[in-house]
Amino acid sequence: METAALFSLLAVEPGQALALLSVGFFSGLASRFVGSDGALLLPALLMSMGIPGLTAISSTMAQRVPKLLIGAAHRGRLGQVNEGLGVRLALWAAAGVLGGVAFQHFVQTQVGVAASNLCLSVAMIVVMVWLGGRAMRHVMGHTSPVPQEPATDRHPPSLSSPRFSAVQLARIGLSNGLATAAVAVGGVVAVPAMVRWLNIPVLVASGTDLLVSAWSSLIGVLVLYALGHLHLGITLLLLLGSLLGIQLSAVSRTHLPPRTVRLVLGLAMGIILISQLFVLPGYLDHLNY
After folding, report:
1. Are 187 and 68 in contact (CB under 8 A)?
2. In a 10 Å sphere around its CB, with 0-12 CB exposed, 13-18 middle and 19+ buried, how is residue 280 labelled?
3. What's the mean pLDDT when you consider all of the chain?
4. pTM for the whole structure
């Protein structure tokens, strides 16, 4: 019985398996150029393949956890992770992801999959409009470039700093957890918030967020698995494809200028945004609106 249950979790149609490997591969390949922002595209692409939103979110989160942990360890060795800040943010992030997952599970079980997909699509549209618009503003030269920082920062800010207020930490941690539950990537909100509200270097903010996002994603994955929303087959295929893409990108000597990277990211966000706008009427129709 246990073997049969495990097989049912891993079972994926051959055509779908190839599509999942391809999606994971291009996600890993793109990570060299656009970083973790590229993971924002995964849930929308999975949902376009007919995969329920919560399963798409949980699979994206699960395949990111090992990469987040490896990235946090590497950045920690470079002195670019504030462990004390990360632990305190992670506690709030856990609360945020638990609340977001609980809400989505309630919507799916009480109203239906279409309602859950609608909520997740709206969240993705909001994030993509904001992130894609920010990228395109950089391309058009309407915002000043981020100042260059040294490769390492071995003196991260102390938690005794007065700018680390409990309210600010709660806002940043909760935003990371809620964004993780909604779009599987919490750093798109947390990193700019740490830079803006805590006034810490971008490298330290992004490095610390790897630690926080690894924790919030792991919590979300465990809860979603317990609730029956995690598909191990989808997760493993995405992870395998992304690892292949990362390996290929590692041997490539191609280097794109930051302006081109932002242009590609903005265009990709725009394409996914349009696709999400087209599926909204279908969700509303299922809900008889």
Report:
1. no
2. middle
3. 80
4. 0.81
